[in-house]
Amino acid sequence: MTRILIVDDEETIRLALRKFLRSRGYEVEIAGSGEQAMQILENGAFSLMLCDVRMPGMTGVQLVPLAREKDQDLAIIMLTAVNDAATATEVLSAGASDYLMKPVELADLQQAVDRALLKRTELIESRRLDMLIREEVALRTAELEAEKESLRLMSVSIAETLINAMEAKDVYLRGHSQRVAELAGQLAEEIGLDPVISEELRVAGRLHDVGKIGIREAILNKPGRLTSEEFEHVKQHVQIGLGILAPLFHLKKPLKYVEHHHERWDGTGYPLGLAGEAIPMGARILCAADTFDALTSKRAYREPLEPQAALEHLRIDSGKQFDPCVYDALVSVITKRLATDSWKDR
Ligand SMILES: [Fe+2]
Ligand SMILES: [Fe+2]
Questions:
Q1: What is the pLDDT of residues 66-109, one digit of tens each?
Q2: Which among 317, 312, 306 has a CA at the least distance from the CA of 331?
Q3: How many Å lie between the centroid of ligand 2 and the Cα of residue 209?
Q4: Which end of the chain is more exposed for a tag (fewer CB within 10 A), N or C?
Q5: DSSP 270-305
Q6: Residue 342: which pLDDT band, with cuts at 50, 70 and 90?
Q7: Ligand in closest contact with the CA of 261
Q8: Mean pLDDT, residues 6-10 taken together
C-alpha cells in the first residue's frame, strides 16, 4: 500500500488531510514537526510526504533536503499558506516536486498526489533502466575485450605456427627466431630500456623473419654471394612479413621493429634507408640480435662463428651497421653469457 506522511504543526489540518487520504486508500502517518517527521522517516519508508512550509522549529524548507537525503525517491508536496513565489521556488529547488496553497482544495490535493506519485514511479523506473543499460554495456565491453584478447593471442600463435613450419623446413633457420627474441629482449634490458620494450622485442624477434616464407629456398640457402637481383628478392621478406602480420595491428610497436630490422645506423639499409636515431631503438636492437645469431649459427655455406669471434667480426660494424650503444650492450650480454656458461643451453 502507498504510504504518505503528513507533516504540519496545525492539528486540524493534519487530521483533515489524513482523513481524506485514508478514504482514498492510502496508508497515512502524521507528524507535528520536522523533527518528529525525521524520526518517522527513520523508521519506515514512504512514497510521499506532504509538508507544511512554516512550522516552529525545523521549517519545511529545512526538512526537505534532510528527508531527501534519507530517501532519494521520496516524493514531496509542500503546503504553504503564503502565496509567495520565492518560497515556492525555494522548496522546489530543495527537492520538492510540487506545492499547494492552503487552504487546500481536496480535488487539487488528489491531483497533486497522483502527479507526484506518477513522477516518482517514472523516476524509479528510468533509474532502474539506466542501471540495466549500464550493466549491459559493462558486460558487453568486458565480453568484447575478452574476444579481442583471445583473437590477439590466436593471431600471434598463428604467426608463430607459420614460423615454426618455415623453420622446420630449414635446418639452418631452426630456432633462429626464438634465439633472436631472447637476445633482443636481453639487449633492451642491458641498455636499461623499459621492460615493456623488452617484451615487445621478444614478440618482434619471434615474428621478424616470417616473410622469408615468401622467399625462394634456393636463394635463402645459396652458398656464396647473392646476385643483386637475388638480393632484391631477399629484401622483400620484410614487406612480405608485414603483409602477413598486418592483421596484428594491436602489435604496433613490434611490427615497427620488424619493418626496420634491416635498416643500418649509417643509412645504407632497407627498406627505407633510415639512419641513426631515425631508426626505432627496438629495430636497432633487433638488427644486432639478428645479425649476431646469423653469424653464430651454421649456414649451408659456412660453419658458425664462435661468439667471441662473432663479436670481433662485428666490431668494425659498430657505428656503421649498428648503433654503437647497441653493439656495446651486445658485447656485455654475450660476455656475461659466456661467463655464466649459459651459452651451452642455446
Ligand atoms: Fe630479416
Ligand atoms: Fe633473422
A1: 999 999 999 999 998 766 778 878 888 888 989 898 888 999 99
A2: 312
A3: 5
A4: N
A5: SSS---GGGS-HHHHHHHHHHHHHHHTS-BTTBPPP
A6: low
A7: 1
A8: 96
Q: Which of 206-210, 248-252, 328-332 has the lowest mean pLDDT?
A: 248-252
The model's confidence at residue 172, banded by pLDDT at 50, 70 and 90, is confident
In the reported structure, the alpha carbon of residue 148 is separated from the centroid of ligand 2 by a whole-number distance in angstroms of: 29
Spatial separation of the C-alpha atoms in residues 71 and 93, rounded to whole Å = 16
Q: Give the relative orientation of helices 106-169 and 176-191 as an angle to the nearest 10 degrees.
A: 120
Distance between CA atoms of 15 and 13, rounded to whole angstroms? 5
b/e per residue 58-88 (b: at least 16 CB within 10 A): bbbbebbeebbeeeeebbbbbbbeeeeeebb
Cell 504510504 belongs to which residue? 3
Residue 38: per-residue pLDDT: 96
Identify whether the C-beta of residue 190 lies closer than 8 Å to the C-beta of residue 198: no
Q: Average pLDDT for residues 8-22, to the nearest whole number? A: 95
Q: Which of 189, 194, 238 is nearest to 212 (CA)?
A: 238
Contact 204, 211 (CB under 8 A): no
Question: What element of type H or E holds 180?
Answer: helix 176-191
Q: Specify the DSSP element, H or E, that contains 52.
A: strand 48-52
How far is ligand 1, taken at its centre, from the CA of residue 209, in Å?
5
Give residue 116's pLDDT.
95
d(CA 82, CA 335): 93
* CA 328 / ligand 2 centre spacing (Å): 20
Q: Name the closest ligand to CA 172.
A: 2
Read off the pLDDT of residues 216-232 as tens digits, 9 standing for 90 and up: 888 887 888 889 999 99
C-alpha 335 to ligand 1 mean position (Å)? 25
Per-residue pLDDT of 40-53, as tens digits, reads 999 989 999 999 99
Q: How far is CA 49 from CA 62, 76, 112, 117, 127, in A?
A: 14, 5, 12, 10, 21
Phi, psi of 78 (to 5 degrees): -90, 145
